[in-house]
Amino acid sequence: MSTPSTKSSGSKKKKPAVEQKAVPAGAPELPARIWWIGVLVILVVAAALRFYDLNLVPLHHDEGVNGNFLVRLVREGEYRYDPQNYHGPTLYYFAAVIPWITRLLFGTAARDNYGMTTFTIRLIPVLFGLGTIGLIFCLRRRLGSVGTLAAGLLLAISPGAVYLSRYFIHESQFVFFTLGIVVAGLRFYDTRNPLYLGLASASAALLFATKETAMISAGVLVIAFGVTHIYRWLYRAVFLPRRSGKGRRYVPEQSAFAVFLKDLGGWIPLVICVVIGLVIFVLINIIFYSSFFTNAQGISDSLKTFEVWSKTSQTAHVYPAYRYIEWLLSQEGSLLFLGLIGAATAVLKPKNSFALFSALWAFGLIAAYSLIPYKTPWLMLNFLVPLALIAGYLAQFIYEMDRGHVRVVAAIWLLPVCLSAYQMIDLNFINYDNDKPYYVYVYAHTTRGMLDLVKEIDQIAAKEDGPKTGISILSPDYWPLPWYLRNYSRVGYYGRTAATSEPLIIANEKQKAEIDTNYGAVYQQVRSSAPDGSFELRPGVRLLLYQHR
Fold first, then answer.
1. Disulfide check for 470: which of 395, 432, 488, 502 has CB 3.0–4.6 Å away?
2. Residues 280, 205: contact at Cβ < 8 Å?
């Protein structure tokens, strides 16, 4: 990012030039005490919302699949990356740390499930979600104290950010590593310390090892960075008043890059830093995709994933280009509205290069993902972070215009924050499995009725043979049941009607006539409270439970 002053003179070694906050006279910086109280309150609120009753929401289909990979990794020590169907390996290895440590410290065995519970697997996205908010607070120099606190608060209570931070999927890690690239890159620019370039490279590597859509995020970051500097250069050349002399326009005395290069020590140190960064990027990807050097095929498969995903993105979850805007308006309207105003402010008055960059990052991502036919609500988490940043900048801008009167910012922010908080509570703790169109994040989600099925199975098994009770699953739709039945040693997943004599059968309601014909004499249906006695797995999919007479 460019600096407000790039003039260099004298032979003395100067401190690295960094971009200073443009705070006008009469708009003082918040006292340190107020700043830290604000940070602490926001983190406590964010943690409470994300940690509260992590078992409340049944696992989504995708969470069940991810949980199945984790169970195999922890129990058998085996994971092999498959580019055909699944995302990167980082989620499983980070999640495996908890049961591995639990087993090391407490000696838990397979019968104790190695400490794997719904809470512990969802703990990983919760921690990364909180970490993302923590990274926002590292941007105080760029956004100002009021702007940074506003951005952190908006993300802390965002309906989608809370919902997806309680989901055992890749998105929370993905946005953390994306923001990690930005924060570490800025710290490298500010301090000229190569350590931060290494951290930026590690974040980029982990981003690509988390999900194949890293190519989109990385591309948008690069484009936003380039356009930011081009736009600011054009703005200065065209709109800034003439500095001196008739017909002469303002020309920077020395480019920011020249100052940066000089402070770093020249081209050779820069090249060395870049090479080391590339080595870190490649090495981390090799480690994860090769399953820590146990699966060489995974390295080449990691490159195939982009080809596979480019085909999948044209055929699965296809929606029109405007769908993300519709979804954002439905449940992230406050953030989108504030982000739009903040982006307009940053474009019309590009005094803050990071604000302009954040605006281009946010709406560049929305545009890029909108052009791709494949659309799912959880991908919107990528938009929420830069939207929160640019909305935070708007708060700082208003604060500076009003000469430091926080009450004006609070008054303007009251309605959007209250609306976002209401939507967040409604979505996450009341209608978390409501499939009405308004609840866009509830996307083919498992309903709470599935937990009733699991409870019924556990009660019957307790009277039978416990975890050794045999269960035949004949329904073609059954995820995330493998996660909830992971402690049962005799579970068969057939996906169709098949011969069985196990104590329990789980079938689809569409198989009822066939089950009654083939097994009616020896099995009886265990009925739920629903009129037809079925258990709803997710909207449109109902399961039947049968017990051997």
1. 502
2. yes
